[in-house]
Amino acid sequence: MTIDLQLVGVGKVYDNGTPAVIDFDLEVSKGEFIAFLGPSGCGKTTTLRMIAGFEAISSGDIFIRGNRINDVPPERRPTAMIFQNYALFPHMTVRANVRFGLDVKKMPAATRDAMVERILEKLGLTDIGDLKPERLSGGQKQRIALARALVVEPDILLLDEPLGALDANLRKSIQNELKLLQRRLGITFVFVTHAQSEALALSDRIVVMNAGRIEQIDAPYELYTRPRSQFVAKFIGRNALINGKVILADTNGCRLDTAFGELVGASKVAMRAGSTASLAVPAEAIDVLPASTPLSYFPEIYGGNPIKGTVESIQQVGHIVQLVIIVGATQPIVVEGHADKYVGRFQGGEDVLLAWKKDVATLISR
């Protein structure tokens, strides 16, 4: 396996002493699509800019294909970067914008022109090659920025929220194009976003960041279904977090003593009995059943006990129904499911029982 990008203990501290990135370790394989995901101010864009060379690192090392690049200036790194605002030159045509990076490298004119025409054709931009950016749509501008970055044939393409300025429908369309293009070209992509839907849809792996630190690095499905920290459980998807004390926890499963009685879930690691922990249960993995359901039904079907609650509200958005369930003094539990499952089944104010299969709940230390 070829490692395109490696960050070892990378950190960034600003002049006023504020840490922006702390002990960042990551290996990215050739052709991998990696997303940096987290809230504003978590350090994801700073990390991207350190890889690009636009931000000096305070500690650690960055390697591209085995070469340490800490002191290599941006223009000499085998990277290209796409910014959220695309940074197109308004006075230049599409062709001139795309050719700019090749002009800086002072390549022979014939080679430059051939490379530009090839990338314009690949991205469907040939017909607008002589237009200026002011006459183009957001989707076309995004493709131009992509063409300008790819034409220099970088080892790694860095993308700083490149879809943030697009409307929802266009963003979805460009997402699909971006993923297909990355697969076809085989170039390593490092993508910064605060939108979890983008990260989950596009990435091979996601780096979740919080306050300058890495919280978890995993494939999208694993990250979504098996959060390893309270922050990830709250940030990714919509999980119910139920606090309690560990009765038993090993790789075969867990039992947690909670305000609702003994509840069950899965555990990736052993935890000491009596330690405080939480169960993270995805909203779509929770079943809502009538309060009249016999309690004997739950151990057999779900492997554990239910939680008693009361329906506070029911809202339908498209084919998804969201139910907010009051469960005593703790935070309400949100349940999501397909309309076929829930429309017309429950009323506001109705008492219900909540349950889930053991394997869908994840034990997290507190």
Task: Describe this structure as you would to a colleague.
The chain has helices at residues 44-52, 94-104, 109-122, 138-150, 168-185, 196-202, 220-225, 230-235, 297-301, 339-342, and strands at residues 3-13, 19-29, 33-37, 59-64, 67-68, 79-82, 156-160, 188-193, 205-210, 213-218, 239-250, 253-258, 261-265, 276-282, 287-290, 307-317, 320-326, 333-338, 351-355, 362-365. By secondary structure, it is of the alpha+beta class. The chain has two domains: 3-225, Rossmann fold (3-Layer(aba) Sandwich); 238-365, OB fold (Dihydrolipoamide Acetyltransferase, E2P) (Beta Barrel). The strands form four sheets. It has a six-stranded mixed sheet with strand order 6-7-8-3-9-10, with helices on both faces. The longest helix has 18 residues, at 168-185. It starts with a strand and ends with a strand.
